[in-house]
């Protein structure tokens, strides 16, 4: 099978069957489980990972340790799990950039660090549209203000991202391409550091998840101008969508989901799916996400595989349309 075949629905679903017999894995877990988050603390993947880790620890009876491995837009952490021994003791909580990063490597002529079919989907946790935020003292009160300023000062206005071709970079470049503007991309090791610099004014714009931005909006350190979803989000009901503003091709969602390395024994995949089903039905876990402004969006493995396949195909098409960009 073409290693990029995961972006088709059939190949995405076939991942669920690409597991080895359980064999001697009945005693799993036999040690602590490492849950890799391929970004620093403070972003959407980290928001998803921590309550999930606490719940899995109770259900599975072993420590579940969140391991933040930021860098390269998520590629470093994704690669670490893709290459990990498939014994169920190394898992991944990652974002929608999962399929974009290998394509970006090909686009930029770099060695591809991992392929998506090296990972098996277990459960979707969150799925929010990104929201465009600006520094509280920025002069723009609307997207139209920002676009007009960016056209007057091409390549000057600095915006942050979680890394080249990561979720926050692709969403902003999608907007910039459709608006016919050019901004100054400042890549970080994750959304957390980028948000810190937005708050302090070192950058002036950032696309991020609603749950990550909500506390800062409430604190008055940033304000939001638009969201990238097809509909308005409950946490920012007065914020228009880009589609409502006339940008019909600007739509982007930042989902977070649990994966393991391909080749996980079938019995382990089954236990993880059952544990995640229990976790995502837990009122305490759901309350954490709701309070953060990022409501749970659970999908079990078969449905999640189909979702990832369709979303990956759409994002790869967008990345190819964006093409090579400075700082990519």
TrEMBL record:
Q: What is this protein called?
A: Tripartite tricarboxylate transporter substrate binding protein
In its keyword annotation, does this UniProt entry include Cell membrane?
Answer: no
Give the family per the record: Belongs to the UPF0065 (bug) family.
Q: What is the lineage of its organism?
A: Bacteria, Pseudomonadati, Pseudomonadota, Alphaproteobacteria, Hyphomicrobiales
Which PANTHER family does UniProt cross-reference here? BLR1237 PROTEIN, TRICARBOXYLATE-BINDING PROTEIN
Q: What Gene3D superfamilies has UniProt attached to this entry?
A: Bordetella uptake gene, domain 1, Periplasmic binding protein-like II
Q: Which organism is it from?
A: Phreatobacter stygius
Q: Which UniProt keywords apply?
A: Signal
Q: Has UniProt tagged this entry with the keyword Signal? A: yes
Q: Which residues form the signal peptide?
A: 1-24
